[in-house]
Amino acid sequence: MKTVFLTGINGLLGTNLAAELLGRGFYVKGLIRNRLKYQGPVHPNLELIEGELLDNLQPFCTGCDFLVQLFCLRFSNAG
């Protein structure tokens, strides 16, 4: 089974991509800030990893065949 590490799993694109990958037989490791806010599919081949994009993610990428980066940081100059 191929493994995908997916950032931004709780966004619109990330949620849909995770569902598609899980449906195609992939194991998905998804980076999320807060597991309690996850709105995507529940699946035995889904592992949610709490963290931030700027954390050291190397340990979570170990054993992954693919990395999909959908998370983005937004900055505001308002004020």
Task: Walk me through this protein's architecture.
The chain is of the alpha/beta class and 79 residues long. The protein has helices at 12-23, 58-61, and strands at 3-7, 27-32, 46-50, 66-69. The chain is built from two helices and four strands. Helices cover 20% and strands 25% of the residues. The longest helix is centred in the N-terminal third of the chain and has 12 residues, at 12-23. Strands 3-2-1-4 form a four-stranded parallel beta sheet, covered by helices on one side.
Q: What strand order characterises the main sheet?
A: 3-2-1-4
The shape is globular
Number of helices: 2
User: What's the main sheet like?
Assistant: 4 strands, parallel
Order of helices and strands: EHEEHE
Overall residue-averaged pLDDT value: 89
Roughly how many Å apart are the termini?
A: 49 Å
Structural class: alpha/beta
Report low-confidence residues grouped into runs of 5 or more.
none
> Strand content of the residues, in percent?
25-35%
Q: For the CA atoms, what is the radius of gyration? A: 13 Å
